[in-house]
Amino acid sequence: MRIHRVAIAFFCTMLQICFGTVYAWSFFQTMLVRQSGWTHTETAWAFSIAIFCLGTSAAWAGSALGRLGPRRLALAGSFMFAGGYVIASAALWLDFLPLFYVGYGVIGGAGIGLGYVTPVATVAKWFPDKKGLVTGIVVMGFGIGALLLSKGLAPFLVVRTEGDLSLVFLWLGIIFAGILIPCSLALSDPVAPVKPPSGSPAAATPLDATEPDSTLPYLTSGQFIIMWTVFFFNIAAGISVISFQSELLQEVWGLADPSVEPAVLAEYGATLIAASSVCNGVGRLFWGLLSDRIGRVKVFRILLASQMVVFGVLMTEENPWVFSVLVCYVLLCFGGGFATMPPYILDVFGAEKMAKMYGVVLTAWAAAGIFGPLYVGYLKDSYPDRAVMYCFLIGILMLAAGYLFSYLLNDGRLRLGRPTLETTLRQHGIPVRA
């Protein structure tokens, strides 16, 4: 049965929405601290492990995608992601933190990695003529997944289970399995490569199947290393906010109005997660489209520079409404980085190497996932009165470093690539000695 490419894009987006619920972590952060007695740093480790395993498994998935195909990888990721919630449920019932790390962090996080890279690389093959748009739409699903969980599914389950987090996590595993597995079964690569219109940038990409399959020269190239570094700093700054945004807002709001009850503060925090997740998703679509028009590197420079200003304001902002709006902008830019990088990789390295190269660049996500949440958790445990200010100060330093590194990238050269001498000779039918 032939599946229309629009249906493929829909299934890929549904997968991303479910996997993206990981960004609603801060909804559970405070509840876990209060119910289980774990510290902020201990609970932050679960999120950090999940993001680290996400990035590292995505790197492997990128290299295995061509061999195993999108359906197998997506199915494996779906089973692991849903199973991770079930194991985490058992860990909460047993009050055993290491098992929670294994379930939610290692197994669930690795499942996200297998599932995340698959829809992005697959939809890019189906839409080479609109890669910025469709990859933006698909990864937008990952951004708005937190909205689904924080304002819909999770509060509903918390009420129905009377706040029993072990049951909440169990039901989440069952529900996600019911959505993810059918969508994974529908995935496939196009039977024949979809050709972009002649004259389009994708049609002119010089790095194609005529080159040797080895990606090592590209992984060790200066341009890839700089791309990885810029990506890392943008993610690290944003994920430090994502991991504690609910609690940071509750702290700011509590200082502005001490009369607000903790339950109301928690509701405010959940609302911020929902609003910021929408911005995360919209940012992926908006910046992806903009990168098609003005170039990928220019978009990264705008993202990094504007966030430096926003983080500077957030350091001392005491108005909870202004604080919330600025956090939403940070998430808008965070999502923008994920929308811009896939077509950037595709522009530079070509469709044949897209899955492998994109998988490896996602190790920046893994590294940022360890660094970002843990330093915020440490600050909240060690300097509770100044954690907000220190968090955003470190964020400014990371964004400034990323902005400086972005000037080592040449947008025109990287987007078009430069074929090697061997590639040029092969393309003109000239034999090359091995």
Features:
18 helices
Structural commentary:
The protein is mainly alpha-helical and 434 residues long. It is 79% helix and 0% strand. It contains 18 helices and no strands. It has helices at 5-19, 25-36, 40-68, 70-94, 97-126, 131-160, 165-185, 216-219, 222-242, 245-256, 262-294, 296-314, 320-349, 351-361, 363-382, 387-406, 411-416, 421-427. The chain is globular, with a radius of gyration of 21 Å. The model is unreliable at 199-212 and 412-421 (pLDDT under 50).
Short description:
By secondary structure, the chain is mainly α.
Indicate the low-confidence ranges by residue numbers: 199-212, 412-421
Count every helix, treating DSSP H or I runs of 4 or more residues as helices.
18
Instruction: Supply the helix-strand structural class.
Output: mainly alpha
Overall body shape: globular
Q: What sequence of helices (H) and strands (E) makes up the elements?
A: HHHHHHHHHHHHHHHHHH
The radius of gyration computed from the alpha-carbon positions, rounded to a whole number of angstroms, is 21 Å
**Spatial gap, N to C terminus:** 43 Å
Average the pLDDT over all residues and give the rounded result: 81
Number of strand elements: 0
| Helical percentage | over 70%
Which SSEs are present, and which pair or pack?
Blueprint: H1 5-19, H2 25-36, H3 40-68, H4 70-94, H5 97-126, H6 131-160, H7 165-185, H8 216-219, H9 222-242, H10 245-256, H11 262-294, H12 296-314, H13 320-349, H14 351-361, H15 363-382, H16 387-406, H17 411-416, H18 421-427
Helix pairs in contact: 1-5, 1-6, 1-7, 2-3, 3-4, 3-5, 3-14, 3-15, 4-5, 4-7, 5-6, 5-14, 6-7, 6-11, 6-13, 9-13, 9-15, 9-16, 10-11, 10-13, 11-12, 11-13, 12-13, 12-16, 13-14, 15-16
